[in-house]
Amino acid sequence: MDQLELARIQFATTSIYHFLFVPITMGMAILVAVLHTRWFRRGTPELRRVLRFFGGLMLISISVGVVTGLVQEFQFGLNWSAYSRFVGDVFGAPLAMEGLAAFFLESTFLGLWLFGFNVLSRRVHLFTAWMVAVGACLSALFIIAANSWMQNPRGYTVNPDNGRAELTSIGDVFTNPVFIWGYLHVLLVALIFGGGMLLAVSAWQLRRPPAPQPVTVPDSGEIAASSSPSPFLATAKLGLLALLIGTVLQFHVGGQLGINETTYQPMKIAAAEANWTTCQPCSFSMLQIGGWTADDPPTKIIEIPHLLSLLATGTWNGGVQGLTTLNGQYQQQYGPGDYVPNVFIQYWSMRVMAYLATLVALFCLWGVWLWWRKKLATSRVFLWVASWIMVTPFFMATAGWLLTESGRQPWIVQGLMLTTDGLSGSGSATQIVISLSIVVVLYTTLGVIAAILMLRHARRPLPEESAESAPPADTAAPTPSLTY
Asked: Smallest Cα–Cα separation from 423: which of 53, 114, 82, 143?
């Protein structure tokens, strides 16, 4: 592999690894804020223990996500300095907003939330919880805005004197259709991750034998076991609901993203179907063998008529341009070259994401049916499957990023700059191999540590509350009594 391929692998490694923790952080921040709201309204010690329990999982995710994100940004100056010089005036604006506004907002209120349980008033403390969620979502907003500009550049002009892209309208950047639907897509991904995490942990806790809760029977002095339902049943329902909403809405948002790709990146949507010839109407192949190059005719196993037309154009008989036709158009517009991305990656990334989303949706419907029949906490098979459901969002998110970023190739900025032109050019392939090896070792170590910490935390019982919890400042303290 040459320097370009190694640099791309390094950036892909750090980006995918970092993004695995970003939606967990966003989703858990939102759901922890929901749990905090429930505790604020009811004020029971049990809800406080549940809040602190899942807040611990959120903190582990944030810690690892911050570290991996910092490493990722250094590559803009090391491996991709030519790209940074060309688009720095545009790309740097949303990145600066993310660092100076969203990140500091999230980190400041995270500290206030973490150490404010016995210090802040209940209303102020609840406000800090929601501000952590807002800060996490704002961070994603600015990052997706920058990435969407690479997919569909707008609101800029190229300075003829220095040949650099310069920002002319920040409003155009944040009203980019690719950004609007892409950000909604990421928010729903976060909801899927958060719901999956909440459900998986709650299901595992429901499967374990309940700890005995001794209570005193009035007028007898005898000790009996408490029959109150596990607090993890409520969190399992919340996680199931978040997972269902995120998955179902994602089908509509994903369909709109497909229509945007047909408009702004037709090569990407054609590669996702391995569609080499223009068609109208177009069928969607559920499975095919071959067809990854123009000279390799595909063998389509199962086809659904008109489905590709619906996904790509939103119409029953919409047409989709083929890869060969588009490549010829690009050669006339941009010069000689091969503008077709890796069709194999595009084809299977699309299907891994779509098929797993369908399975998750069916799983959620199963859970809702058990919920309706009041058997959610007693179905051992469902709880066992739910304990492993957290694995699916990782595969879906990885496939989604491969579909988005690999499908843009060979462009690093669609229609403006080729990926090969964004490379720094300095150094050597050997140096990138060394740095890539270090990154892989460090990230693998971090991943193992994070997995162990999250698993150990998820398997613990609810934390015991200390007796030093002070009454909230905005709630009247109980009237002292001399008799008990």
From this structure: 82
* H helix intervals, 208-301: 231-264, 266-272
pLDDT digits (tens, 9 = 90+) for 207-238: 876 655 544 444 444 333 344 457 889 899 99
| List of residues 6+ apart from 472 with CB closer than 8 A | 121, 122, 125
Cα–Cα distance measured from residue 484 to residue 480, given in angstroms and rounded to the nearest whole number: 10
215 CB neighbour count, 10 Å cutoff = 13
Element (H, E) at 288: strand 284-289
Classify residue 279 by its DSSP letter. B
Taking phi first (over 0 means left), then psi (-120 to 50 degrees means alpha), and beta for anything else, what does residue 169 get?
beta
Whether the Cβ atoms of residue 356 and residue 395 lie closer than 8 Å to each other: yes
pTM of the predicted structure, to 2 decimals: 0.87
Please answer whether residues 38 and 235 qualify as being in contact, where contact means their C-beta atoms are separated by less than 8 angstroms: no
Burial, 364: exposed, middle or buried (Cβ in 10 Å; 0-12, 13-18, 19+)?
buried
Q: Is 202 exposed, middle or buried (0-12, 13-18, 19+ CB in 10 A)?
A: buried
Question: Which sign does the torsion angle of CA 69, 71, 77, 79 carry?
Answer: negative
According to DSSP, residue 290 is labeled -
CA distance 154 to 176: 7
**What is the residue whose two structure tokens read 């007693």?**
378
